[in-house]
Amino acid sequence: MPLRLPDKLPAIEQLKKENIFVMDNSRATTQDIRPLRIVILNLMPLKITTETDLIRLLSNTPLQMDISFMKLKSHTPKNTPIEHMMMFYRDFEDMSDEKFDGMIVTGAPVELYEYEKVGYWDEIKKIFTWARTHVTSTLYICWAAQAALYCHYGIPKYPLKKKMFGIFSQYTLNTHLPIFRGFDDIFQMPHSRHTEIHRDDIEKVPELTLIAESSESGVSMVMARNGREFYITGHLEYAPNTLDIEYRRDCGIRNDVDMPKNYYIDNNPEKPPLVTWRAHANLLYSNWINYYVYQETPYDISTIR
């Protein structure tokens, strides 16, 4: 089944070119199906790009989903047209009485700030708390993963000497978890971050389970509340050229920019990226939707607790 998306969302035309079946609201209302309600809190600067990346992965399921986009009232994006935000996004306070089957909270370019010094910290703490009683399962990505672990469990973050930048091998620590159904023992995950969380801190909290990690990029996936929360420190949603765009953007602007590791063919930036994470990205999002959202959410969405 297709995704139900807001009419005229830019991602629709791009994904149709990739032969991904999406459906705008005008057509979807003719189908008598209770779609899964998925809300995306998009904190990334290039919101249209992130929308497209996430919708591409969510489309790989036979279930119909109704996608909504949430924004912060306490923050005005600088890199996305205000018309786009007004047309497709709603403030958290306008959505706070609603319930959702699944939620995704993206990364944000604020990881070098202390959490309490982030301008929208108070509002995002309210959203993290709200999600626990209004959403069946939530995926937190990159900065959002670190921030939510700090908010809920007091897990600190640590600055890295050098940016974790590239594609890194991850090891599944419990292959029997449904989130890893169909996974190999090792999978690849893009990372682009300046901070990290430590395994020792995770292991001190009984409510948290480390489920994937890397010898090079460290903690990569943490699970809590029997799968009602997943914390992912990398970016499986990234398109093939995302790290390349970031690398070329920063070259010449900063003097600490290294080539992304394990990314270009023959580690040569004059050659295209070698995509090694796409299959597992599709599997992870499909498994999340199937086993932790669809099979766990009540038919009467108002009964989510």
Automatic annotation (TrEMBL):
GO molecular function: homoserine O-succinyltransferase activity
SUPFAM superfamilies: Class I glutamine amidotransferase-like
Site (described: Important for substrate specificity): 192
EC top class named in words: transferase
Catalysed reactions, as listed in the record: L-homoserine + acetyl-CoA = O-acetyl-L-homoserine + CoA
CDD domains: GATase1_HTS (cd03131)
Chain positions of site Important for acyl-CoA specificity: 111
Sites where the protein binds substrate: 163, 192, 249
Active site: 142 (acyl-thioester intermediate), 235 (proton acceptor), 237
Amino-acid biosynthesis keyword on record: yes
Pathways involved: Amino-acid biosynthesis; L-methionine biosynthesis via de novo pathway; O-acetyl-L-homoserine from L-homoserine: step 1/1
Pfam families per the UniProt record, alphabetical: HTS (PF04204)
Cellular compartment(s): Cytoplasm
EC number: 2.3.1.31
The keyword Acyltransferase belongs to this UniProt entry's keyword annotation: yes
Purpose of the protein: Transfers an acetyl group from acetyl-CoA to L-homoserine, forming acetyl-L-homoserine.
PANTHER family listed in its UniProt record: HOMOSERINE O-SUCCINYLTRANSFERASE
Family: Belongs to the MetA family.
Protein name: Homoserine O-acetyltransferase
Organism of provenance: Xylanibacter muris
